[in-house]
């Protein structure tokens, strides 16, 4: 199953990958080479830390590469209408009358503090395909909840 992402989210992953490959890894490799030239590596903290950092960078590079292999870029600016689709910003009201605004994006773009949820989250899945004035139910760790869709917006083209 593909994993969807916005063009901005894709660019962020590409930028991090490029930074690690072209700047961070070469810098740390040079530091490890310098530390290795000092002699005894068993008690050389710069060498030990550098090797550990290289392993972390390589692990992150493998993760980013695996994400780039499966993600499918979807531009939400190409959508419009009153139906919730990937990339929509949705205004909702819960059963207590509280209003919230959420933007539905890819798993790699989640930022709940800034109102961004994944399309595979319980709320994201419940909202997809629904329209303004629909009431949708979804399960949370605290129990079943219902929300009503007040408005649906997409980024400008």
Describe the structure.
- The protein has 157 residues and is an alpha/beta fold.
- It has 3 helices and 7 strands.
- It has a 5-stranded mixed beta sheet.
Secondary-structure topology with pairs:
Blueprint: E1 3-5, H1 7-36, H2 45-70, E2 71-73, E3 89-94, E4 99-105, E5 116-118, H3 122-127, E6 135-140, E7 143-153
Parallel strand pairs: 1-2, 4-5
Antiparallel strand pairs: 3-4, 3-7, 6-7
Helix pairs in contact: 1-2
Q: Could you give the order of the helices and strands?
A: EHHEEEEHEE
The secondary-structure class comes to: alpha/beta
Q: Would you identify the CATH H-level superfamily of the largest domain?
A: Transcription elongation factor, GreA/GreB, C-terminal domain
What is the CATH-assigned architecture of the largest domain?
A: Roll
Per DSSP, the total helix count is 3
The CATH topology annotation of the largest domain reads as Chitinase A, domain 3
| Oligomeric form | single chain
Write down how many β-strands occur, each being a DSSP E stretch of 2 or more residues.
7
């Amino acid at each position: 199953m593909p994993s969807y992402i916005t063009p901005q989210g894709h660019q962020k992953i590409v930028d991090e990958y490029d930074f690690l490959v072209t700047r961070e890894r070469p810098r740390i490799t040079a530091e490890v080479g310098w530390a290795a030239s000092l002699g005894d590596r068993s008690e050389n903290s710069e060498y030990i830390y550098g090797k550990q950092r290289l392993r972390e960078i390589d692990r992150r590079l493998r993760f980013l590469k695996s994400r780039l292999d499966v993600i499918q870029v979807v531009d939400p600016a190409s959508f419009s209408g009153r139906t919730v689709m990937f990339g929509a910003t949705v205004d909702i009201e819960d059963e207590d009358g509280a209003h919230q605004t959420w933007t539905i994006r890819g798993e790699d773009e989640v930022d709940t503090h800034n109102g961004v949820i994944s399309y595979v989250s319980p709320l994201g899945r419940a909202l997809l395909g629904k329209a303004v004035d629909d009431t949708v139910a979804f399960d949370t760790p605290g129990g079943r909840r219902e929300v009503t869709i007040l408005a649906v917006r997409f980024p400008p083209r």
